[in-house]
Model the fold of this input.
Amino acid sequence: MTGVVDRLERAGLARRSPDPEDRRRLVITAVPGAFGDAFGGLEKAMAELAARYSAEEQAVIADWVTRTAEVLREQTRQLTARGRRSG
Done:
């Protein structure tokens, strides 16, 4: 993943910034306008959606998404390990 973000950053399409809630993490964001009109509608729609939530609510949503991804990765590892043992 780091290599992908490195390439996006070098191309001027994304940037990294420290996560204000957790110093161990980085927040990766698209550079506004970097993709031209290709994602203009999506960018506007997502900005409107995000504007519905306070910074605190957005932090809770981000935490939930992060923790959900962690649970899914762990469950995938467990299923893969079980499959190797039984196969």
About this structure: Residues 2-86 form one domain.
